[in-house]
Every structure is written in structure tokens, then in C-alpha cells.
Specification:
Strand content of chain A: over 45%
Order of helices and strands of chain A: EEEEEEEEEEE
Number of helices of chain A: 0
Structural class of chain B: mainly beta
Shape of chain A: globular
Radius of gyration of chain B: 13 Å
Distance between the termini of chain A: 34 Å
Number of helices of chain B: 0
Number of strands of chain A: 11
Number of strands of chain B: 11
Largest sheet of chain B: 6 strands, mixed
Oligomer: heterodimer
Strand content of chain B: over 45%
Helix content of chain B: under 10%
Order of helices and strands of chain B: EEEEEEEEEEE
Radius of gyration of chain A: 13 Å
Largest interface: A-B, 18 and 18 residues
Shape of chain B: globular
Largest sheet of chain A: 7 strands, mixed
Amino acid sequence: DTAVSQTPKYLVTQMGNDKSIKCEQNLGHDTMYWYKQDSKKFLKIMFSYNNKELIINETVPNRFSPKSPDKAHLNLHINSLELGDSAVYFCASSQDRDRYEQYFGPGTRLTVT
Amino acid sequence: RKEVEQDPGPFNVPEGATVAFNCTYSNSASQSFFWYRQDCRKEPKLLMSVYSSGNEDGRFTAQLNRASQYISLLIRDSKLSDSATYLCVVRKTDKLIFGTGTRLQVFP
């Protein structure tokens, strides 16, 4: 009964490749997020969608493109991967944009070689 | 300067000890405050909210000082299972701003 799930859990790829990470939540939440946690454990918001509408778009290279086909799914596509993209990417959801409690997925550990 | 600053630790304490973590935030417009817990190689999970009057949840006590822009977390009677990284989190408009965390290791 996973609340927020992400696939894949691990992703190892070479520089220059394009990859996608998928996220699904079965909590009926309206708002979903992508975070990046770097090697220094700093967790930073990248994007947020509320009912499929983009509401937060931090200063992220435009190689990163989120897509929300419906409010239960938020995918992250990354073009032309770079070494600095290596990190753990967490998807999260909250009941709505005003709720502070966010439920995180297990993370996707991306390694770019 | 980071928006949310924490001592990274690690804090190594014996079982049964009392340990306190502090956190400072830079934006006085911050609206809400929380502590999240992150176990090694796992996702963050909400531990507790922090209210101006201070609040307690079992062995955990959180306090907020808005004038000093300072948040604290006190853990009493530490258990081995409390070993984790504790993330100080501040809400600003629609976003949660996470500190880099304080690592706690409780030993037998």
C-alpha cells in the first residue's frame, strides 16, 4: 500500500543521455513536488504542481522538464544529463498547496558517469 | 547565507540521554516551522510542527523564538531508534525550505 511511489529506485547513466523518473501517489492529494538532495544532503525544491498546474518552478536548468498527466502522477524528464545532476530525487505530495505535511516517495538515486 | 542553518553534528549520545538541536532561519516572513526526520538512505518524514507557544509530543519538545528566528528540538530519554538526521524546515509562501539536518547517533 505504497502512498508515494517512484520508479526507478536507482538509475545509472552516462553523460549526455536523456532519462525519466516517474512518480505516483495514491493518497488523493492535489499537490505534488520534485526535490533534489545533493551529496551534502541539502534538500531543495525543484517543481510543484497543483491539480496538474505548475505552481513552483525554482531556478532549475531547462534540461529538467516536469510533466503531470493527471493529479496522481508527476514525472521528471532530464535531457543531456551532466555529472552535477547526480543526486537523490524525491517526489512528494500534500493534500493541497496550503498543507504543510508532505509525504515523500522513497527517492531515485541518480548517478551520472 | 543559507535560509535555514543547522549544526550538522553528529551528536553521539548514550541511550537515555537528553539531547537538543537548534536551528536558525534568516527570513522573518517565514510562516510555519517543522521538524522532519530522515533515516539513512530513506525519505524525510514529518516529526512535528513547531508552535510559538512550544509543543510536546511524547519525548519530543519543540520551541520557536520568532524574535531570535530560532527553533529547537529536545529529545528526552533517547532510544536507539531515534538515530537519524533531523531536518529543520521553514515554510515560506508555497515552499518548504529544508535545513541540511543534524545527525543524531544514539549508542547502547
